Amino acid sequence: MAMLQFLIAVDVTVVNIALPSIGADLGVGGHSLTWVVVGYTVTGGGLLMLGGRLGDLLGRRRTLLAGVALFGAASLLAGLAPSFPVLVAARLAQGAGEAVALPAAMATIVLMFPEGPRRSRALGVWAAVASCGLVLGFALSGIITAHLGWRWIFLLSVPLILAVLAAALVFVPADRPASRERARPDLPGALLLTACPLLFAYAVVGAGEPGANPWASAAALAGAVLAAAGFVLVESRSPDPLVPPALLAHGPRVRANLTTMLLSGALSTSFLLFTFYLQDRLGIGPLGAGLTMLPLAVALIAASVLVPRLLGRWGARVCVLAGLGAAAAAMAVIALVAVLGAGAAWLLPAMLLIAAGMGFGLVGLQYIAVGGTTEEDAGIASGVQRAADQLGGAAGVAVYVGVGFAPAAHAQDPFLVAAALAVAGLAVGAVVVGRSPAAGEPRPQAG
After folding, report:
1. Cβ count within 10 A of residue 292
2. Helix, strand or coil for residue 315?
3. Is 249 helix (H, G, I), strand (E, B) or coil?
4. What are the residues whose beta carbons fall under 8 Å from the beta carbon of 433, sequence distance 6 or more?
């Protein structure tokens, strides 16, 4: 499960440093390249709740195997893509494979470890692997692109995916699917939930493109609003909704997922800000830029190992607020670096604070989001939490691209936007996470 989490997390960021090479090879530039990143994260995030529901209804083992197989086939197609549209289609398929496989994997872990210290440690490992995959994706992208070419960032993962598939066949125990009467996945709801962020991303990204048609962006934004309204309407009338009403009635879980979206939006934006600042502003090549991100991975491992031990002493809410505070401080440092035009050495404190924010914030939020789940709803609760993470990150990237970081004349705007996202996440998180421990949250211990 951890290897699968790592490969999926790597695929979120591994294309970032390779984007210039992809554009040069396939004859694509500017805002169009954004879809290599946004298409994957939005499709994965939009379909994650359907994937979680399928795991609960059809059995987690079979949905895990199907999702891993789809993810591997799409990775192979991306590496062999003869054109940009094929590459984007492969990235969309990768997102769909992730959406099916990842909730089943997380639900398997949640159900394997009872609430308490064991689950805290398990989710700490899970979050550490995900965070390191996100960060190491940058380093791997620089190394592979510089020495082998961008296609190998997808092709090298194929044998590892096959190993995950074989290991899942051997080690993941079979589980029983739900009864036939209950097996009615909410496909209309899933399609509307995916269409909404895709249209939003198209509207925001397209608005910042030179010579863009403002009416097209306005129409896409209106379509996103209609898709969101349609999703609410479909869910309210569906006999078997994508998200059960009881899940939405769980206040701490809803507040944790909202905070996850805000934090992930800030963190995903910060990764791209680091990348473009190092390459465009400081003139560091892809390999150097990727290696400069490595301190993030080291700090993430340390933070993720420490957080499970602190959950029992502080409680998840305190860990979350500490993570949001570190992220906000980091984005303030980044904005200051951009304004002053400082060198790469000034980014190191910000990188370490970002790592602390991810380690403390995401582990605590995951614990709250899956607290109190059972065999019947662990998959959908995991899917909702992952969807909040993915869609929040995709929205952050879309806003980042929409304000146009690359042109030097507008280079400071995205830094301020990212800082505002993190500060807003801290302020909102202080309110929405809740005033009392959530169900399943380890209560602070005296002393």
Report:
1. 21
2. coil
3. coil
4. 252, 255, 256, 259, 317, 320, 321, 368
Vertex 152 angle, CA 148 and 156, to 5°: 120
Cβ-Cβ contacts under 8 Å for 274 (sequence gap 6 or more): 138, 292, 293, 347, 351
pLDDT in tens, the chain (447 residues): 888 888 888 887 788 778 778 888 888 865 677 788 878 888 887 787 788 778 877 888 889 999 999 999 999 999 999 999 999 999 999 999 988 898 888 878 877 777 777 877 787 777 778 777 877 777 788 788 888 888 999 999 899 999 999 998 888 887 766 555 555 677 888 888 888 888 887 787 766 666 667 788 788 889 989 998 998 888 888 777 777 777 777 777 888 888 888 788 777 777 767 766 777 667 777 777 777 777 777 777 777 778 777 877 777 778 888 888 888 788 777 777 766 766 666 677 887 888 788 778 887 887 788 777 666 666 677 777 777 887 887 777 777 666 654 444 444 555 666 566 666 666 766 666 655 444 445 555 544
Using a cut of 0.70, tell me whether the model's pTM lies above it.
Answer: yes
State the maximum Cα–Cα separation within the chain, in Å, rounded to a whole number: 63
Planar angle of CA 79, 32, 5, nearest 5 degrees: 45
- Report whether 41 contacts 166 (CB < 8 A): no
- The span from the CA of 77 to the CA of 98, in Å, is 15
CB-side neighbour CA atoms (13 Å) of 270 = 35
Cβ atoms of 156 and 347 closer than 8 Å: no
Rg of the chain's alpha carbons, rounded to an integer? 20
In angstroms, what CA-CA distances link 77 with 51, 74, 101? 22, 5, 18
Determine contact, residues 69/92, Cβ cutoff 8 Å: no
Q: What share of the chain is helix, strand, coil (3-state, %, to 5)?
A: 80, 0, 20
Q: Tokens 């194929």 appear where?
A: 158
Number of H helices, E strands in the chain: 18, 0
Beta-carbon count within 10 A of 281 CB: 17
Calculate the alpha carbon distances from 255 to 206, 231, 362, 373, 432 in Å.
31, 20, 13, 16, 5
DSSP state letters, 151-191: THHHHTHHHHHHHHHHHHHHHSPP-PPPPTTT----HHHHH
